[in-house]
Amino acid sequence: MNRRPLGNTGIDIAPLVFGGNVFGWTIDEKTSFAVLDAFVDHGFNAIDTADVYSRWAEGNEGGESETIIGRWLKARPGVRDKVALFTKVGSDLGGKGQKGLGKDWIAQAVEGSLQRLQVEQIDLYFSHWPDPATSYKETLTAYKALLAQGKVKSIGASNLNAAQLEEALKVARQEQLPAYQVLQPEYNLYDRSSFDGPLRELCLKEDIGVVTYYSLASGFLSGKYRSRDDLKSSKRGTGVGKYLTPRGMAVLEALDDVAADQGAKPAEVALAWLMAREGVTAPIASATSVEQVKSFAKAAQLTLSHEQIARLTDAG
Predict the structure, then answer these.
(1) CB-based contacts of 206-209 (< 8 A; 24+ apart in sequence)
(2) Phi and psi (nearest 5°) for 78?
(3) Is the domain defined by 4-315 classed in CATH 3.20.20.70?
(4) Could you report the average pLDDT of every consecutive run of 10 residues in the chain (316 residues)?
(5) What is the rounded CA–CA span in Å between residue 238 and residue 187?
(6) With contact defined as beta carbons under 8 Å apart, do 215 and 230 qualify?
(7) CA–CA dist 212, 275 (Å, integer)
(8) Residue 200, class by beta-carbon neighbours within 10 Å (0-12 exposed, 13-18 middle, 19+ buried)?
(9) Backbone dihedral region of 65: left (phi > 0), alpha (psi from -120 to 50 degrees) or beta?
(10) CB contact at 8 A, 147 and 106
(11) Residue of 79, 140, 149, 144 whose CA lies nearest to 114
(12) Can you spell out the DSSP letters for 16-62?
């Protein structure tokens, strides 16, 4: 499978990243192992998680996803060299001071992630959310130490707007600190406003890699949610209701049309649109079955025509 440079990190990735939020939440460890095996077997090589995944699930404390990935790596000798691991720091883990992007918490949090993942180095370490209480200088100084220690290979930021990312890059230049190399924004065929425009232009200008989350709009772009009744069938259904609008239906109609032309599923087309989008390195998408991983592989092989891309883009 063709790989793409992830900004200036020196990491080359297949055009789709696995979203590890499902591990320990909607799929158990055994199923997680099978899905990860299939993911690598199909030529993919990047896995995204976070220290907080999946704290929101009943009975979880956070760290479950990293732990499952770590156990999978330990059970699969040699696989570590084939995959790039992305994880994040900054979300509230529930303990005193266990949140934000301050230097003390970053130094502590990275040790927890390394231990759970059972690795010596994290390939890409993200600031999960902006932290108004901490300066960019403090955060980037903490990352400088981790890079020097070899605990992380590269750094990124999630959920920054254009002004925030620009300021972080400015501080890095002024203070001779490492700069964010990758951005993780919410972006899909329906939700475009936060990335399209100044933020995308900045990423293109600065050669910042971009991996998108909610790439299928919480499953809406799969086409399986077309009415309020459909929302009852999934744990994620409650987050999909906002897409059941005239615009959402127009997007699904365009997906249906292009999918029929391509002999593909709507979700595959939605992912292929993202892969073809200027400024996007790869979408992040989650799977709960081996069949869904096979669908990712088909999405990566789709070539949309200019007319099909325009049909999809105009619908949204």
Answers:
(1) 206/169, 206/179, 207/7, 207/8, 208/7, 208/165, 208/180, 208/181, 208/182, 208/183, 209/5, 209/6, 209/7, 209/8, 209/9, 209/156, 209/181, 209/182, 209/183, 209/281
(2) 95, -20
(3) no
(4) 97 98 97 98 98 94 97 98 98 88 98 98 98 98 98 98 98 98 98 97 98 96 86 70 94 98 98 98 98 98 98 94
(5) 19
(6) no
(7) 10
(8) buried
(9) alpha
(10) no
(11) 149
(12) -EEEGGGBTTTB-HHHHHHHHHHHHHTT--EEE--TTTTTTSTT--S
The reply to whether the predicted model has a pTM over 0.90 is: yes
Length of the chain equals: 316
Q: Where are the domains of the chain?
A: 4-315
- Token pair for residue 148? 């020097």
Helices (H), the chain: 29-41, 64-75, 103-117, 136-149, 162-175, 198-206, 246-262, 266-276, 290-301, 306-315
Rounded distance between C-alpha atoms, residue 28 and residue 253, angstroms = 34
